Fold this protein.
Amino acid sequence: MNSVKSKLPKIGETIFTTMSALAQKHNAINLSQGFPDFPMDELLINCLQKAITDYSHQYAPMAGLPILRELLAEQWFEKHEFPIDPLSQVTITSGATEAIFDAVQAIVHPDDEVIILEPCYDSYIPAILLANAKPIPIPLEFPTYQIDFHRIYQAITPKTKAIIINTPNNPTGSIISHQEFLQLEKLFYEFPQLYLISDEVYENIIFDGIKPLSAFDYKGLRDRTFAVYSFGKSLHVTGWKIGYCIANPHLTNEFRKVHQYVTFSSPTPLQYAIYLYMKQNPNYYTLLPQFFERKRNSFLNLIQNTAWKPLDCSGTYFILLDYSSLTDQNDVVFAKLLTEQYGIASIPVSVFYQEPTDHKVLRFCFAKKDETLKLAAEKLKFISQSLCVE
Ligand SMILES: Cc1ncc(COP(=O)(O)O)c(C=O)c1O
């Protein structure tokens, strides 16, 4: 049999699949993969039922249902206080993953370089490699996970085509501040060849009264930015895989050339169900910060006074716990041991780097029922008592 010459020879099964399978095998509490274990809003279920019975099951328009795009533009105006055009600036995709892939393919040419800030979401590197381009990883500063602009300036070459950012950030829970966006804007003025792919899928999950910022809010970035979003995160329906991209018309035009040959369009009934839901519950997203902040705080309360040391978490539904006072084992080994022997699954943060970088932190997802978080905290307390040698 001919063996295929892989286009992604270094890419194997993702750690999310590995850890979830391990969690299942050992009947562990799964705080590894980022999805809610609580049900979606009943109103959304009703909207889906209505969409399935009353609406079309044929292809949606390539750029997405116009009525949904119009609502998104209205929502955008409410949040950002400047308008976007639903026809030429909003494109519905099959999840943010597709939007990121399409944006990369739309602008990145063979041998270009794309700067990614690590730790980062795992779809960025394969998307860059499939464009025959080179990912250039720059680490975020540990433990604040702020952008190291000095290193970005050092990394920029005539081949640098784009930078991918993510705020609020998975896995770190950090956000890009106004000051950092201003620095980014300055950098973009200095390097007119650059584009920005801004992964903002957790835009609605942000805590402590912090105002969510989009790269698209900054005039110096706007014309060169693809901002990417996911209903999976905002509506607790990760399995729906519906996302969208906001970009100025000249970029949207190139973006849609890719989108129309990757998926052409995304499932019509799901788009319509989201439209119905947003129409009836336009402020749904305003409740998310409070909802997840309460979960973050109660999880942290439950594990306080243990050897697990939380890092700052300003957004997303992930929190990083530093375990360095428990063991000096590397994070992959320790995460597997916790799953197999103590029944709690997490994600080792080193896997979000191209070259494994072990700061002895694990990522835990708190988008879980209160009972799940309570059980998880009990396990973490037990581990702390069992392993702590102080
Ligand atoms: C930072 C980040 N970007 C993109 C995605 C993908 O979103 P979607 O499920 O809508 O493709 C995720 C999903 O976990 C994510 O965490």
